[in-house]
Structure prediction request, 100 residues.
Amino acid sequence: MSTSRKTFHPRHLRQRLGLNQQQFWSAVGVTQSGGSRYESGRDMPRPVTELVRLVHIEGIDLARARGEHFVVANHLRSTNPALYSRIKHQIRAKAGRSAR
Prediction:
């Protein structure tokens, strides 16, 4: 597993999140046995690495994410960066309060 492609080890991330392999890997469309191989040191393909990052680090629920959500966010960021930044900070603050 190349550390240049990511800054996390999937097993450590999974354990920190308190998930078993089935819960962790099924959220990104990987079988438990495939995830076990990645946790044991096999290189993860870049798309799998990105899915793990999006789901388990960024908190995006793939079942609910739609392409239009990303289009709207990109449009807002480019047309009204101040509002985009304000909304982003509000969401982060709310997430920080709920994590306590």
Observations:
- DSSP finds six helices and no strands in the chain.
- Residues 72 and 78 are 10 Å apart (CA to CA).
- The two ends are 33 Å apart (CA to CA).
